[in-house]
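Appendix B, example 12.
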Amino acid sequence: MDNRHSFLHKIALITGAGSGIGRATALAFAAGGAAVVVADVNEAGGQETVELARQAGRDAIFIGADVSRSDEVEALVGETVRRFGRLDIAVNNAGIGGAWARTADYPLADWERVLAVNLSGVFYCMQQEIRQMLAQGGGAIVNVASIAGQRALANAPAYTASKHGVIGLTRTAAQEYARQNIRVNAVCPVFTRTPLFQGMIEGNARLEERLLHNIPVRRFGEPQEIAGAILWLCSDGATFVTGQAVNVDGGLTA
């Protein structure tokens, strides 16, 4: 597929686009011809992504939004439609990791915050995105889950539960809106070299080796590789694909 012309005249909204997978995805859509809406709580990172997208010759704007707040999500989608007139593609990528602790010891504040951002945030986004896509006759949504949505990740009960929930939301909405020309899929990356992940393994060679040991290709993912899967799911090459949780994991789940 030639991505250079695949998304011309499309409007793509990406949450958590100030860095990592979100930034890589925003830039990939821009390279493919789309106008991009960069959403994040990190204004500096979001504005940097916008500038990089504009360097590719595409229209791009930043809208600050905390996806754990339903009113901010409603304003985000509303402003996107006000500026561009429609919403063709939505990538719900914003997420946090939370504490590392066993279930019995897990901090309640971290539980509530991780679920608020990673699960409720995706739900709030999907509600607003789907309403707009119903009004305009269709669209494509990709939720960024994790391999932790497909299997256990010890010492991360909140993150694991939230990503399992994201896959459940994805499959449910895909069934509900398939006849309205709205496709809803998820990607499930393995550990990927984002600022969030790099901060987790920084200075901990033993943890890094342990995580690498289970990945057959013996390396972590790169944000651009996850973005590539997201672009395909939103493209005309995937028009018969909906309700799927696509593993991008270097063979881990094999």
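Residues 23 and 252 are 24 Å apart (CA to CA). The helical segments are 20-31, 43-55, 70-84, 108-136, 157-177, 195-201, 205-213, 223-234.
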